[in-house]
Prior knowledge:
- By secondary structure, the protein is an alpha/beta fold.
- It has helices at about 10-25, 40-45, 55-75, 90-100, 110-125, 135-145, 165-180, 195-200, 210-225, 285-295, and strands spanning about 1-5, 30, 80-85, 100-105, 130-135, 150-155, 185-190, 235-240, 245-255, 255-260, 265-270, 275-280, 295-305, 305-315.
- α2 (about 40-45) packs antiparallel against α9 (about 210-225), α3 (about 55-75) runs parallel beside α4 (about 90-100) and α6 (about 135-145) runs parallel beside α7 (about 165-180).
- It starts with a strand and ends in an 8-residue tail after the last strand.
- The chain binds N,N-dimethyl-L-histidine.
Amino acid sequence: MTFRFVEFPSASDELRSEVLAGLAASPKSIPPKYFYDEAGCRLFEAICLQPEYALTRIEQALMASRLPEIAAAIGTIDCIVEPGAGDCSKVRALVDALHPGHLLVLDIAGSTLAQAAASLAGDHPGLQVTALGMDFIHGLEEAQAYLPPGRRLVYYPGSSIGNFSPTEAAALLGRFREIAGEEGQLLIGFDQKKDPDLLHRAYNDAAGVTAAFNLNLLQRLNRELDADFEPARFRHYAFYNPVEGRIEMHLLSLAEQSVGVAGQCFHFHLGETLLTEHSYKFRCGEFAAIASSAGWHLKGEWRQDGFAVQLFDQSIDAVPG
Ligand code: AVI
């Protein structure tokens, strides 16, 4: 087996500076990528098993039933690149269907990624696996040095693109084009707009796992930034905003309170919220237009039960005449 793991430094400096900046802003916010410490990764896996959060199961079912068609549409490739690969569970089936020579996986949660990528490499002799422990949102350019030549497919499943605003998503998809290269393709999964009640339940599961995932962020800051949040004085608060087409996830302060974080003091008013995540939902045409503004050309689309997977390449439409 060929496996290498490279951990990029700077993650803890970025956590400190981004959290302090987010808490000083009005309204207060913290980027959702900071959910994923070890406990957060475990809680996210548990969310995906909740009956109300069907997104992951539907995507898995779609990929399982339509994989032969999807693989035929993609054709021969040399490398799969998966930003935000997490436990690498989604890319396995694609590796088995497409038989690339290389797999490059990236994730801010370096230790979860390293273990999962090593195990995937162990199961696929002959596949060269490179795992980069990095914040790909800021450090994608650094991944260029690890890209093998040839036809590359960027795979971005799980509706992770929904955690970016449409403007940010277009910018990220543009950077995926640079990673994919001229002959590159993009296979991306996203949650579609649907009945707000279904969405509301998906982010407010009865077992309280999503609430625990949201509140774990405060425990992480207590551990890693010497903060003194009392999680019991905050409430998980998630709702669908139909005007913006997104779930908004907040931590709502249940009291007037001051909290110390990395030596600085922040005041929360009673009822004030700390925004922790946006999760945008898209109509298919809406998403294709965002990708097209980043230079991608829609090549295929598969839908199931409110979830969609789109395949893009960079071919330029023939100029008429
Ligand atoms: C990772 N991301 C696509 C999930 C979502 O649905 O936005 C994260 C999540 N947050 C709460 N539940 C799941």
